[in-house]
Specification:
Mean pLDDT: 93
Number of domains: 1
Number of helices: 8
Strand content: 25-35%
Order of helices and strands: EEEHEEHEHHHEHEHEEH
Helix content: 25-40%
CATH class: Alpha Beta
Length: about 230
């Protein structure tokens, strides 16, 4: 589904040049749950931005379902984001004083989905994350874990092929972090959703079935997690 070939991302010039990505090769198959880790400045967030069509590589090829994304213009990349990708961030990015149900519906408005279908898809997404009875609550009335569940439901409502999660448990305590990771693992198992997650927490990465370790803009290690090895066996 996702293939990076010799992807390089350079910022600045001369002495100010920073090679955030330095010729990485990476293949992610449909249905995989992949965690990307590495120290600060390792390039993991830049890799996520390239995969999510939020940034373009300086050099190399990025193939998404066989399409060379690196050659697409800004509007074409936006279409891929809108129709194939879902995003979950460390900050929940929910609209305040807006019920959870309407927060989940929001991206469907931009996709031109009619009101009745929009409401039905949003309700189904909230049920998937265990918040079917919380649709009329504002974010301020929900716990951090519940707010992140709403953010996940918002991503799911668009029926993405890939869910990109950037530090999804970064603002949560240990208990709620585990709940979010168990939810993501269950969604992957039940729906075949492809998940790519950036995290700095090894215990959260353990929920994935594959770990990519990045250092200085390069992939230093690519191996199955214990869960991935167990499932493969």
């Amino acid at each position: 589904m996702i293939e990076l070939r010799g992807i390089t991302r350079v910022y600045g010039r001369g002495e100010a040049e920073v090679r955030a990505l330095d010729g990485i090769d990476l293949t992610i198959r449909a249905g995989e749950f992949v965690a990307i880790m590495g120290p600060s400045g390792s390039g993991k967030s830049t890799a996520m931005n390239v995969i999510g069509c939020l940034d373009s590589p300086t050099a190399g090829e990025y193939l998404f379902n066989g399409v060379d994304v690196a050659r697409l213009d800004k509007d074409q990349r936006a279409l891929i984001r809108r129709h194939y990708l879902g995003f979950v961030f460390q900050g929940y990015n929910l609209l305040p004083r807006t019920p959870a149900l309407e927060n989940v519906e929001l991206p469907l408005i931009y996709k031109g989905v009619g009101a009745a279908e929009r409401r039905a898809r949003a309700l189904a997404a909230l049920e998937q994350v265990g918040l079917a009875n919380r649709g009329h609550h504002d974010p301020s009335e929900l716990s951090g874990g519940q707010q992140q569940r709403v953010a996940i439901a918002r991503a799911l409502a668009g029926s993405p092929e890939v869910l990109l999660a950037d530090e999804p448990t970064g603002n949560l305590d240990t208990h709620r972090s585990a709940e979010i990771m168990e939810l993501l693992a269950r969604l992957r198992a039940e729906t075949g959703l492809t998940i790519v997650m950036v995290t700095h927490e090894e215990d959260m990465a353990a929920y994935a079935d594959r770990l990519i370790w990045m250092v200085d803009g390069r992939i230093a290690d690519d191996r199955p997690t214990q869960r991935g090895a167990r499932d493969a066996g």
